[in-house]
Amino acid sequence: MDGIHDTGGRQGFGPVRFTPGAAAFHEPWEVRANSLYAFAVRLGIFNMDEYRHAIERMEPRHYLSASYYERSLTSLATLLIEKGVVSQEELERRAEGSFPLARPSATGRTNAVGRERFRSGDRVRVKAEHVPGHVRMPGYIRGKTGVVVSESPAYPFPDAHAHGVEAQDEPTYDVRFRSEDLWPHSADPALINVAVFESYLEHAG
Amino acid sequence: MSNEMPAIRRAATMQQRVDAVQAALDERGMNASGSVAQLSQLAQEEWIPRNGARVVARAWTDPAYRQRLLADGRAAVMELGLSMPPHHRHLVVLENTPTVHNVICCTLCSCTAFTIIGLPPDWYKDLEYRSRVVRESRTVLTEMGLDLPTETEIRVWDTTADTRYMVLPQQPAHTLGWPEEKLVDVVTRDSLIGVARL
């Protein structure tokens, strides 16, 4: 989905709120929120792709205003309810207040038919696809051409894995793009390497 | 169907929401509290940047290890007794040189090799870093205090699959010949992400 989470290349944001050596956690509840979602993944209640997608499904105003660990907890609670482990009523009763959740999921998809294989050095194009469900192709590479620099082992296909759809694991490729090709006349010169699933790619010749 | 207007309720605090989830799981006999205590200890005391610092210090002092690390990062960090979660199937180590500077990010969420370089700080997960570092890399790094020579090539790595990345910073000249244990203290988390040099 072309969601609010797909931030790469969006303009208008100010300076990074950076301090050297900044802490990962600030409040005890953040540590617990992080541990609770990891616990649910370990138990097999949901997988990492379902977890990521439930964050992406948050209503955009909620996503933008929530802290990182609020997004994490919202995903956890949404999935616990969707999987039938708990109900929203129970969580709100226990929390003594409203407990905002993510919006419902669209449908997933299986691997591309007739996937091509690629090698280091191949010129590849990212297919110009739009899907309603989970996808790990950042919008800024859609339709763009780059060069394969390496291959990683096969992983579950996220577009399927986030939706309970049966699919094959497939390789991912680190694909190198020139920032100038991604944002002509509108980017600092750099090489942008993106990990791209095989189903998203085609030979560019 | 009730004809009552839904009551306008205030949002529960984050603390209340976390308590609610944890208690609901505990009541179902899942012992969430026990696991949370264990995972929280791991997150705060075991998955720390010092792990990555140990990897870098070994690579600086042992050329054969450096080669193994660059060839297969996951196997090489395991040699030092470090672990990665099952879904992190591949660790790619990115070597900085006098002419190449690497920096990692996750524009879609917050993915990192967290067991090796530590859980990411807020700024890494904030919209500012995620939106800008791919498009305005040099500008962002300069704002963050890293001035690179104009001839240095910047390579940004967006963690959009389950491959994980770690930067291998250049060893500062004044530390050449130092023992490995002392070098570990030189390496910062920010240099493993690539927003700082040493």
Could you provide a short overview of the structure?
Chain A has 205 residues and is of the alpha+beta class. Chain A contains seven helices and five strands.
Written overview of the protein:
- The complex is a heterodimer of chains A (205) and B (198).
- Chain A is of the alpha+beta class and 205 residues long.
- Chain A folds into two domains: 1-103, Nitrile hydratase, beta subunit (Cyclin A, domain 1, Orthogonal Bundle), CATH 1.10.472; 123-203, SH3 type barrels (Roll).
- Chain A has seven helices and five strands.
- Chain A has a five-stranded antiparallel β-sheet with strand order 4-3-2-1-5.
- Chain A is globular, with a radius of gyration of 19 Å.
- Chain A starts with 27 loop residues before the first helix and ends with a strand.
- Chain B is α/β, with parallel strands linked by helices and 198 residues long.
- Chain B folds into two domains: 1-46, no CATH class; 47-193, Nitrile hydratase alpha /Thiocyanate hydrolase gamma (Nitrile Hydratase, Chain A, Alpha-Beta Complex), CATH 3.90.330.
- Chain B is built from eleven helices and four strands.
- Chain B has helices at 14-27, 32-46, 49-61, 63-71, 73-79, 114-117, 122-125, 127-132, 137-143, 180-184, 189-193; strands at 90-95, 100-105, 153-158, 163-168.
- A two-stranded parallel ribbon of chain B has the order 1-4. In chain B, strands 2-3 form a two-stranded parallel sheet.
- In chain B, α3 crosses α4 and α4 packs across α5.
- The longest helix of chain B is centred in the first third of the chain and has 15 residues, at 32-46.
- The relative contact order of chain B is 0.16.
- Classes of the chains: A alpha+beta (205), B alpha/beta (198).
- At the A-B interface, α1, α2, α4, α5 and β2 of A face α1, α2, α7, α8 and α9 of B.
- β4 (191-197) of chain A pairs parallel with β3 of chain B.
